[in-house]
Amino acid sequence: MSLTGQNLIAGQYSGDIEQGFTAFNAFTGEPMSTTFADATSSEVETAITRAHEAFCSYSQLDAPMRARFLRTIGEQILALGDELVEIASTETGLPHMRIQGERGRTVGQLGLFADLLESGEYQAVIDHADPAREPLPKPDTRLGYLPLGVVGVFAASNFPLAFSTAGGDTASALAAGCPVVMKAHAAHPGTSELVAKAITTAAQLCDIDAGVFSLIQGKNYAIASQIVKHPLIKAVGFTGSERVGMILQRQIWEREEPIPFYGELGSVNPQFLMPNKLASEGSELAQGLVASMMMGQGQFCTSPGIWVLVADDNYDAFTSVVAEEIKKQPAGVMLTPQMAAGFKQSVEARKAVAGVTLLAESEAGEGHQVQASVFETDLSTFIANESLQEEVFGTSALIVKCSDFNEVLQFSTLIKGNLTASIHALDTDLSQSKTLALSVAHKVGRLIYNQMPTGVEVCASMNHGGPFPASTDLRTTSVGSEAIKRFQRPICYQNMPNELLPSLLQG
């Protein structure tokens, strides 16, 4: 399928590619051949208006029909075949195997929500009437859920499939009964167009109003502002930097009608290495942490960015293995040349912090390739420099040396919110681990024991969120079946006849 470079608005291609932008070949850093349109204000308006028009019919579809739509999207994504894998890999620099795995996860997410719809997307809460209650009769009340309306979704840079066009936010919003206006990420516009075509084809096959989904291309910042400020947008899903996310959040607060903003803005995912585990398995821990940090060139939201341990007699042996492992790593490419430049700038800034030491760097690269790096510092330096809490997006980590376990506990109270944290321990560490876990649990959305944080299981029990800045609403998850609740609102039906109730509340 050849790329048009245009927006795909309610099933129709639109956009002037003569005044647009190009993606970059992540491996070479050179511009690619297709020019993509910068959406106009009129095109964004049309996408949102058509989505609002489609909401009336789409929100009334029964659960089996919505499930069929989601499964059909998955089938159409698979039907794109090798072309999707090739374009996504070229645009992002991610290997084919990673893209294939992410495609499987994307289709799996769609299937998860389809399963949820077919089994009942919420549990009915029914309190029957009691006309004999004194002093007043009790009415029949039943709690259900309604879709919010049109949802604006911003694609992630680091997951061109699983957190982008048909990814978790889109899948959960469509499952909830909400049309989606998707803002594609400029790092992988070709990938976005192919997946958008799959969604559009699925809507045609299922006889669903084409306004249920639109893809907006562009690098113009005004596009994002128009989407979040538009009165017909009823919720927003965003994955990106804290700086951009907070700009959008402030714009939403200024709306006449504030709406939910589900932003994932950054996480350093601290790793706590308990003393007996370090003494027994220090070499394995060092190798595992480096391997986890290197996954996806460090461009995972769950990449282990801070490693915390007591600097006891085993510390030097541990850091020696870390240094050896880092030096073995080849230079790598990042998603875009701009991200590579940003990573290099962050690493140089960290080198300039007094009290922070560069432990080791990987092989030097050429052009826009980047080196992996691990730094070390002590707790007092960490406390004095708030910048050390900021995520370095890429292959870099910071070891925080603590003088004793009390300092480890102090660290756990000082960190900002994170998606994850891991405690690496033996049974002989359990007493301290329990104390630590009670503290760290208040800082994360997922607490892990003896496993690395990279990788998120898509299942009913998963929580992918956390206190700010990990997410802007710590009560929700962007992964797993519970994500559907972000785009629904509760409604109580009182004394309603059976014929007027949703099917899940009848009887």
Automatic annotation (TrEMBL):
GO terms for molecular function: oxidoreductase activity, acting on the aldehyde or oxo group of donors, NAD or NADP as acceptor. Residues 21-466 form the Aldehyde dehydrogenase domain. It comes from the Bacteria. The keyword S-adenosyl-L-methionine does not apply. The keyword Transferase does not apply. This is NADP-dependent aldehyde dehydrogenase. It comes from Thalassotalea agarivorans. Pfam families: Aldedh. The lineage of its organism: Bacteria, Pseudomonadati, Pseudomonadota, Gammaproteobacteria, Alteromonadales. Keywords: Oxidoreductase. SUPFAM superfamilies: ALDH-like (SSF53720). Signal peptide: none annotated. InterPro entries: Ald_DH/histidinol_DH, Ald_DH_C, Ald_DH_N, Aldehyde_DH_dom, Aldehyde_DH_Superfamily, ALDH_KGSADH. Gene3D superfamilies: Aldehyde Dehydrogenase, Chain A, domain 1 (3.40.605.10), Aldehyde Dehydrogenase, Chain A, domain 2 (3.40.309.10).
